[in-house]
Specification:
10 helices; single chain; alpha/beta; 2 domains; Aspartate Aminotransferase, domain 2; eight-stranded mixed sheet; 12 strands; Aspartate Aminotransferase, domain 1
């Protein structure tokens, strides 16, 4: 095990020892925005592999590997969040886990498994990590920030023995060593406190908030909207009615005092405008429902403007939308 300053540094270390400018990384589409930042800093090219409700699609992975090979290159690794994926919330099924590992093994492709949410399962136990199935060729990254405290930046890497020393040297060059204070605090917590009960409490709270978000979406969202139904983690991925742009709609949403992350942030090429990530971890259920009500109202206004003005009147619609965004907001009671 290599101890790191959170999961983000763990991913950065893997990128530092494996990636050169111009290298190819395969990643789910959409994928974690922080990972895209790491790969961009390494000047790597990200090739997205599509997902569906059961996680990464194995046939699409095979196709992506073949297309990269036809271009005369070879992908360095597959970066994946197979359990309660960020941002989509979906989980790779047991059957697909084996298929993905088989495909990567045949192609000689390393797997970087990012698992910050695996312990936040609401509906039964989460599938076993990829690393538990194939120790060789799988790097496992995780963190305490989702289960202990976000400010305690302590994570870890489980890696094949041959590269552990390289990871340690790369980490020493960056930070000398992770915080001894943070490590001691977590060690004390794990050895003296009922952390399993605390984790159970987190799961119950997040399950209630997940259920509140899904119920509000079903009750309030305009026709044509769809969303994932995660069995754990922190996120729901929503697909907007045709023609709506989550990034363009953001100013009106902020004016209504409700926020989301536009889907464009989760793709290397900036696509995904018709999607948004919703986070249910912080607000209590009643505020979640109010937030969805406001968001649905903004979307209804956008749809109405499109219907009235059409494509030819797009600029006028935008001006009207901005005027609505500038109107005073009554706020929450």
């Amino acid at each position: 095990m290599v101890v790191t300053v959170g999961g983000q540094q763990a991913l950065d270390l893997v990128a530092r020892i494996f990636l050169d400018p111009g290298d190819v990384v395969l990643a789910e589409g959409p994928t974690y925005v922080g990972a895209l930042g790491v790969f961009q800093a390494a000047q790597a090219q990200v090739v997205h592999v599509p997902m569906d409700g059961d996680g990464l699609v194995p046939e699409a992975l095979e196709q992506a590997i073949a297309e990269v090979a036809r271009s005369g290159r070879r992908a360095k690794f597959l970066y994946t969040i197979p359990t309660f994926q960020n941002p989509a919330g979906v989980t790779l099924t047991e059957e697909r886990r084996e298929r993905v590992l088989d495909i990567c093994e045949r192609a000689g492709l390393l797997v970087v498994e990012d698992d910050p949410y695996g312990q936040l399962s609401f509906d039964g136990e989460a599938p076993a990590p990829l690393r538990s199935r194939r120790r060789d060729g799988v790097f496992y990254l995780s963190t305490f920030s989702k289960t202990f405290a976000p400010g305690m930046r302590v994570g870890w890497i489980l890696a094949p023995h041959a590269v552990r020393e390289k990871l340690v040297i790369a980490s020493e060059a960056q930070i000398l060593c992770p915080s001894a204070y943070a490590q001691a605090a977590i060690a004390t917590y794990l050895s003296t406190m009922p952390w399993r009960e605390q984790l159970k409490t987190y799961r119950e709270i997040y399950r209630e908030r997940r259920d509140a978000l899904l119920a509000a979406l079903a009750d309030l969202m305009p026709a044509g909207t769809s969303w994932t139904e995660p069995k754990g983690g922190l996120f729901v991925w929503a697909t907007l009615p045709q023609g709506l742009d989550a990034k363009a709609m953001m100013p009106r949403s902020i004016a209504a005092r409700v926020a989301y992350v536009p889907g464009t942030g989760f793709y290397a090429d900036g696509t995904g405008a018709g999607h948004m990530r919703l986070n249910f971890s912080f607000p209590p259920p009643e505020r979640i429902r109010e937030g969805v009500r406001r968001l649905a109202g903004v979307m209804e206004q956008e749809l109405a403007m499109r219907q009235v003005f059409g494509a030819m009147g797009g600029h006028a619609a935008r001006r009207r939308g901005q005027a609505a965004a500038d109107a005073p907001d009554p706020g929450l009671a």
